[in-house]
Design brief:
5-stranded antiparallel beta sheet; globular
């Protein structure tokens, strides 16, 4: 096992600070430690069946003539794919015509207002009881406000509260929380340019931006970034902290170490310089009392071939803890050495207090695309549940030198499929689907292998988990009363091969390259379940329950409960419920957290590829809200623009 620790000079205090009104949802993870657990308990397994829509808000302005999904376009450019044309017309294999744009937003509710970033160039404040607009601010383009939401800064004696967020074209923006006006005194008219010369290094600025909200610590706004996935050289993925009052840069953590910094020697000579990737494009977490920020980093570029970057490549696909005031390195744990599988960490590291041999231990849990759950001491980075380095397959690609071992948890099993057998694992959902998949596999002479099998040269490789996991940015939620971690995952395999290239690298992805399904079918080629919801006991690390998550409406009667690909996360409540959308079947569901039994389900107008949230309205009722637009890289149809808040029917409230 390879991990590092620099020691923490400041005094270590017990607990994680979660200072907010009990009924609010003041940051993406509800608390800065990312538990996504609400103390509200009006809605329970006994009455959840009586939930009904209380209000619906349409993010798309009625006056908008045409729609281009700018967030999707920016990400496609970062992957080297063509843009969608104006109005959303197809210009590539994943583009679809639509009047709508995709959103993965989780609203915030603070002090009687709901704050939402939309994919239509606006940030809005709503009445959380009715969905009525209080204010709406247009954000000049071309970059859209953060895809997954905003962050709230409470202000200080001289400065009123602000809403802060990034844009897909690399601006950090602050708005007055009361009025929506651009915050005077912050940067230039409320805007800070993040695409600085140090970050760009003379490279293309188009790929740099933010898709997830920052996190606030005291008077600091701590930001990750979205960068390119190809080519190898480009904008740095550094994490930075900015003063929330005037926007000046306070500290920078180099995600790819510079010469003389820890981890520089894990890169072949010259390969770290100018390297892109290794970015925190998902969610950061904070232990506010200890003053520690937890940064989940993605893979280096290019993330399917690493012959130009021999070594473990720190801090690629690593969880790094740093002093939140200074950015000083404290410790790290690398989940994937020399990542050539796009195994990014992106979910918010989940902070909780574990009980180990009768003692309380500060813990952090991290899950990623690998579907492997690691639980560490959040002060030191040392494992709470044992981890071992195991041998993994080598590569047949000239120049590629993968790590001979990778870390595996020894107690918690993989929370998703990590291998595929052509002989035994082809789907049996229907005879026709089985035969179609078998022929597709045979015609393309596909080869199998376990997790961490490098993509082969000129041989189509079946990879589980695929580029989307496993887990993804939705991550996990934690119910402290039940000591249960709940996480949704899917088994969305990938097929691709490497072929010779004319540059800038010697190899590139060849065809076929895509999901493990033929002809863009919604039905997958491996045996199910294809998506699952898991409950993991954090006193033992063992799985307490697992259930299929999602249905395939086109499957035969009696076989529809296949589980489905999903994107977005779950939340838990003190009422004993787990709420989750995420699946591409357009459903929003509630489960009894103790058992995994589904107790409520509603079909929406589009897939809810977002994490829900819950809050107490000014009227005293408990609401549960979720965005449902479709989209994401699950290619769900873009058929809506709604945020819907659900509540118990009036006669059931309080029962």
């Amino acid at each position: 096992m390879r991990w590092g620790f620099a020691g923490i000079a400041t005094a270590l205090l017990s607990g994680v600070a979660f200072a907010q009104a009990p009924g609010d949802w003041a940051t993406y993870g509800h608390d800065k430690g990312g538990q996504r657990h609400s103390p509200l308990k009006e809605i329970t397994p006994a009455n959840a069946g009586n939930l009904a829509p209380a209000w619906t808000y349409h993010m798309r302005p009625a006056t908008l003539a045409t729609t281009t999904d700018a967030n999707a376009d920016a990400q496609r450019r970062a992957e080297g794919l063509p843009d969608m044309t104006a109005g959303g017309a197809p210009a590539g294999p994943r583009a679809r015509r639509s009047r709508f744009a995709g959103s993965e937003v989780t609203p915030l509710v603070v002090n009687g207002r709901m704050f939402v970033s939309t994919p239509y160039g606006r940030v809005v404040a709503l009445n959380p009881d009715t969905g009525a607009e209080i204010w709406a601010t247009t954000i000049p383009g071309p970059g859209q406000p953060s895809l997954r939401g905003v962050e709230y800064w409470a202000g200080d004696a001289q400065t009123p509260a602000r809403i802060v967020f990034g844009t897909r074209d690399g601006r950090l923006i602050a708005l007055d929380a009361a009025t929506g006006a651009f915050a005077e005194g912050f940067g230039v008219s409320g805007v800070v340019e993040m695409k600085t010369p140090e970050i760009l290094g003379g490279n293309d600025a188009r790929f740099y931006g933010m898709t997830s909200p920052p996190i606030v610590y005291g008077n600091l706004i701590i930001t990750g970034s979205a960068v390119q996935e190809f080519p190898a050289k480009g904008a740095a993925g550094d994490v930075r902290a900015w003063d929330a009052r005037d926007g000046h840069l306070v500290w920078t953590f180099h995600s790819v170490p510079r010469k003389g910094e820890k981890g520089y020697d894990t890169w072949a000579p010259g390969s770290a310089e100018g390297r892109s990737g290794v970015n925190a494009w998902g969610f950061l977490s904070l232990d506010e009392k200890r003053g520690i920020v937890y940064m989940p980093f993605g893979a280096p570029t290019f993330d399917r071939y690493g012959g130009d970057r021999a070594g473990d490549n720190l801090f690629g696909t690593s969880l790094v803890a740093a002093d939140a005031k200074t950015g000083k390195y404290l410790w790290h744990f690398q989940v994937v050495h020399h990542d050539i599988w796009d195994g990014d960490l992106e979910a918010a590291p989940l902070l909780f207090d574990a009980t180990v041999k009768g003692k309380t231990v500060p813990a952090v849990a991290v899950i990623s695309k690998s579907a492997l759950l690691f639980v560490l001491n959040r002060e030191t980075g040392k494992p709470i549940f044992p981890i071992a380095e195991r041998k993994v397959p080598g590569s047949d690609v000239p120049g590629e030198k993968p790590s001979p071992t990778q870390p595996f948890p020894l107690v918690t099993p993989a929370l998703g499929r990590t291998s595929f057998s052509i002989k035994n694992d082809i789907t049996d959902l229907t005879p026709e689907l089985h035969d179609t998949c078998a022929k597709w596999i045979a015609d393309n002479q596909m080869v199998e292998g376990p997790i961490y099998t490098p993509v082969h040269l000129d041989k189509v490789t079946i990879s589980f988990p695929g580029l989307l996991g496993g887990g993804n940015w939705g991550g996990a939620t934690y119910d402290p009363a039940q000591r249960l971690l709940v996480v949704n995952t899917h088994d969305l395999g990938q097929v691709t091969k490497l072929v010779p290239s004319k540059g800038p690298l010697p190899f590139e992805r060849g065809q076929p390259s895509g999901r493990f399904r033929p002809d863009n079918s919604r039905l997958l080629c491996q045996k199910g379940p294809w998506g699952r919801l898991w409950g993991v006991d954090m006193t033992t690390g063992k799985v307490r329950w697992q259930v299929p998550l999602g249905v395939s409406d086109e499957a035969p009667e009696g076989k529809k409960l296949t589980g489905r690909p999903n994107m977005g996360g779950a939340i838990t409540t003190a009422g004993g419920l787990t709420f989750v959308g995420a699946t591409d079947d357009n459903r929003f569901r509630a489960f009894a957290t103790a058992t995994g039994k589904m107790v409520w389900e509603v079909k929406l107008d589009a897939a809810a590829h977002a994490t829900p949230m819950t809050y107490a309205g000014r009227d005293g009722r408990q609401y549960v809200a979720i965005a449902a637009t479709g989209g994401t890289f699950l290619d769900s149809p873009l058929t809506s623009d709604t945020i819907t808040a659900f509540a118990l029917k009036s006669k059931d409230a309080g029962q």
